[in-house]
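Take a specimen:
=====
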Amino acid sequence: MREAFFAWLTGQGIELTSMMMLVIAIGFILLTSLVLHLVLHRYVLVALTRQLGRWLQVWLPPQLQQKMFNRFAFALQGAVLLAQAEIWLLGYVESLHLIETVAQLWILLFLLLGGFSILDCVLFISRRAPVGRTLPLRGIFQGVKLMGSILVGIVMLALLMGKSPLILFSGLGAMTAVLMLVFKDPILGLVAGIQLSANSMLNVGDWLQMDKYGADGEVIDIGLTTVKVSNWDKTITTIPTYALISDSFKNWQGMTEAGGRRIKRCVNIDMTSVRFLERDELQQLAQARLLAPYLSEKEQELSRHNQPLGEELACPINGRHLTNLGTFRAYLQAYLKAHPAIRQDMTLMVRQLAPTSDGIPLEIYCFTSTTAWAEYEGIQADIFDHLFAVIGAFFLRLHQTPTGYDLRALQGSLPVRERLSQRA
């Protein structure tokens, strides 16, 4: 074809020199490459994207499709350029070698990028499957990309040096220690990602809390070297992947899967307000619908226990009596069991903790029927609002450190003469 074209030019009366023939060949190659580029990217890829897009759009977004097709189109252009150079530059050794080297590097680069695009497409599709959400595919694919980049980089370097790639590969053994030092984080991250997946420790979408790194939010990405956490205050925290293996963290996903979120909060009761209940006070509390069964059962039990004591019951120390604190605890237990937003199939109790200088801690321990944060806080607030409102009906007082208002009230209760003397 080359000889026929130049023979036709000679027949047209054009005198061809060696330099002119080289310029014409290079110009024809460039012109053909430009035409091929326009045809591929203006017409072929547009039509291909339109046709295949109808089928692939179910799995892939248009951006990933276009990027993948473009990269393989550039690789095809490099192959056509290489074929044209071998046809038109035959006999021009230096020019042929230069264009062949450039074309081969071009083909390797865009084949590598095209492979990256295929991995990105597989990753995007796999995230829709349950298996893809549990496996650290992003970290694995990043590791594959790193290894592919190293191998292709070695081959490209061998092309530039004019040496066999085997010579460079044989020298990797001596550079193993250096490579392990340079790629320490990717290697540790890859191993950590596999361990996290194999032990079902962490997946994308889990609620992660790691106070050491200030992370408290949803895991949005598990990469080769870092894990990204979108905190609840909309900030992003990055954690080294291997730190999730070497350090401890809290995964709240179990709470979400269980379908119940724990309430564990105390109120402090003033110890000086705890006492036995009088008969009229018991009659008043018996009007409470949730408390009536408990009081009826307890009165029968105490009556059987105290009956043999006779006149000894005149002393309150003798016998058994209902206390306002115990009755209040029983009421809270019944209130939680009747609450529609509290899980009855999970742990539910109201317990008394060891007394402290701040009073007697009375702890509510239960689980809500929802794990949504806002709903959970609303249920918890409603329960304690009710607790604070009804505690006075049980003749109890909450412990509270004296405030400025309390001190001013105390100051106002002093006689006028004492206040004047204190001011003086």
Summary: The two ends are 120 Å apart (CA to CA). The domain at 197-251 is CATH 2.30.30.60 (SH3 type barrels.).
